[in-house]
Amino acid sequence: MRALRILLIVVVILGGLFVLADRLAVGFAEDEAAGKLQASENLAAAPDVSIKGFPFLTQVASGSLDDVEVGIKDYEATAGTDGKTIRIDDLTASMKGVEFSGNYSSAIAASATGTASITYAELLKTAKSEPTEVAPGVTANVVGLSDGGNGKIKVAVEATVLGTKLPSPVYVLSSVTAQGDTVRVKADTLPNFGGADIAENRARAITDFEQKIDGLPGGIQLDSVQAAKDGVEITVKGSNVRLAG
Q: Which helix (H) or strand (E) holds 22?
């Protein structure tokens, strides 16, 4: 019995040491991966990297990690070919089947899914903000975006008719969709600018706009978009996503 107790104590101690070693190793790997990702994506701050699954050391031995979660607070994604960027907030992605090199200099995920958000203030930068003539004597421009409820965006349009600015903005509810790498905002109904007769294509030149997002980290791509309280919520996905290298 005494020998059995000693054996159990030894097993418990060894098990504890293994768990400690495993957690130290995963912490080191997370820090290394975060540093590599920060460098490869030119991030202002290191992202949050969390390697899921236990034990970690057996995953290392196989050369593949089951699930790695990456979180980036503020990401400046490229927006088209003119050098402009758009800020993506709280980008979180779950990477599955991550193959990595021994020194973590390269890591590629078989698949990835995630979520992020774009504030209305950020999206507003892509709308036509300068007054534009939509009919003789009538100019208009988008001055605000907000939550319209039921998955709609409320677009505020300011108009000037025959030199007189309307006392309050004209509001329209718009639908937001994702098509390829582009977020599109399209008015469900056209605004009435003080009763002026305005052709649909001239009105939509003001109310409708789009934002290309083609520079998400690791090659992940835009999947879907939905209007929410403080901005638009997007989902992303990808395959063979490069975390580093």
A: helix 2-41
Q: pLDDT tens digits, residue range 113-131?
A: 999 999 999 998 887 778 8
Listed residue (92, 90, 88, 70) closest to 79, CA to CA: 88
Is the predicted pLDDT of residue 189 greater than 80, yes or no?
Answer: yes
Q: SS3 for 158?
A: strand
Answer yes or no: are the C-beta atoms of 85 and 79 closer than 8 Å.
yes
CA distance 92 to 141: 34
Return the DSSP state at 46.
Answer: P
Q: How confident is the model at residue 224 (pLDDT cuts 50, 70, 90)?
A: very high
| Residue spans of beta strands (DSSP E) within the chain | 48-51, 64-78, 85-100, 107-119, 132-135, 138-149, 152-161, 164-165, 170-179, 182-187, 209-212, 221-227, 231-244
* Interatomic CA distance for residues 7 and 45, integer angstroms: 48
Q: What number of residues does the chain have?
A: 245
How wide is the angle at C-alpha 124 spanned by C-alphas 221 and 208, nearest 5°? Answer: 80
Give the CB-side neighbour count of residue 31, counting CA atoms within 13 A.
6
CA 36 remoteness from chain centre:
20
Query: Which structure tokens are listed for 156?
Result: 């505020």
- CB-based contacts of 147: which residues, under 8 Å, 6+ apart? 120, 153, 154, 227, 228, 229, 230
Retrieve residue 7's tokens.
């054996």
Instruction: Compute the chain's Rg from CA coordinates.
Output: 26
